[in-house]
Hints:
The protein is α/β, with parallel strands linked by helices. It has helices at residues 22-33, 49-59, 83-88, 107-118, 135-145, 160-173, 187-193, 251-258, 267-282, 288-296, and strands spanning 8-14, 37-43, 63-66, 80-81, 93-97, 100-104, 127-131, 152-157, 179-184, 210-213, 239-242, 262-264.
Amino acid sequence: MEIDGSTTIVGVIGYPIAHSLSPRMHNAAIQTWGINWCYLPFQVTPESLEKAIEGMRGFGIRGLNVTVPHKQAVMRFLDWVSPEASAIGAVNTILNEEGRLSGYNTDVEGILAALRFGAGLENLPEKVVVVGAGGAARGIVYALTTVTDVKHITILNRTIWKAERLAAEMEKMAKEKTEIAGKELDGETVRDELREAGPGGCETAHGAGLVINATPVGMYPDVDCSPIEDPSAFHPRLVVYDTIYNPEETRLMRLARSRGARSLNGLNMLVYQGAKSLEIWTGRKAPVDVMREAVMS
Ligand code: ATR
C-alpha cells in the first residue's frame, strides 16, 4: 500500500480504539482491490467528537465507522440519518459526499447476513430470544423485526425494566407485526423460553429456535462468565449466536455445545457490517472472504 497525494482516507473513531480489528479487515479488502485508499484508526474522546466530525469534513475523509462510545452522540453532527439508524438511535457508518455527512447503521445488515450466510439459517425461526437490552440488543431486535419469519421475540435482561421498555418500544416500531416481550434474565425464565421444540421437530408455541447474546458477558478478559449458566437450558434443536468474538469460543458457546446445540461467535457479524460500510463508501461489492480471513489470522 503506497500513500500519496491522492490517497482516499477512510477509518474508524472510538474510545478506546487500539484493539479494533477494523483497520486490518478493511485494508485487506482495499489491498485486494488495489485501489488508492487507506483505512485508519482514530482515537477520539467524547469531548472531541464534534471537532473530529468537523475534521472529517475539513480533511475530506470519505467515510468513518463509529464505535463505542460515540454511536448515539454522533447523530446530531450529521446532515442526514437513514430511517434504520434513526429507528435504532445509533449510527455506525458515516459517508462524506463533498462535505455532506450521511449516517447509516450497518449492524442491521451485519446480524442478518451473519445468521443467513454465516450460520446458514436461510429461514429464521419463529421465535428468537435476545439476551441483553443495551445498544447492541437494540440493533439486533430491530433487525429481527424486519424479518417476516420471526413472529415472537423475547428480550431477557438482568434489569427487567430495560427489557420491558425496549420490548414495548420495538413492538410499537414494528407496528405490532412482531410480538415482543421483555423479561428478567433468571434461570427459570431462561429454561422456559428455550424449552425444547415439540414433537416432529416443530417448535412449540413456546420454544425458541435461536438465542442471541447481546451482552458483553463472557468477553475477554472475563472468559469464565456466561449470561446463561445452566447447561440444561440448551437442547440440540437450538442455535446459539454469541455477538462476542474474543474469545473465539465463549463459555456460553461451550455450554450450548455440550448439550448438542449449534453455536457461533460474532466474527461474521463484524465482517458483514464492515463489508456493508465499505460498500456504502466505495459502491463496490466487498470481498467478504478476504475480510473474514484478515480478522481470523
Ligand atoms: P452495548 O451498547 O454494548 O449493548 P450497554 O448498553 O452497556 O452495552 O448494555 C450492556 C448489556 O449487557 C445490558 O443489557 C446489561 O444489562 P443491564 O441492563 O442489567 O445492565 C448487560 N450486562 C452487562 N453486564 C452484565 C452481567 N454481568 N450480567 C448480565 N447482564 C449484563
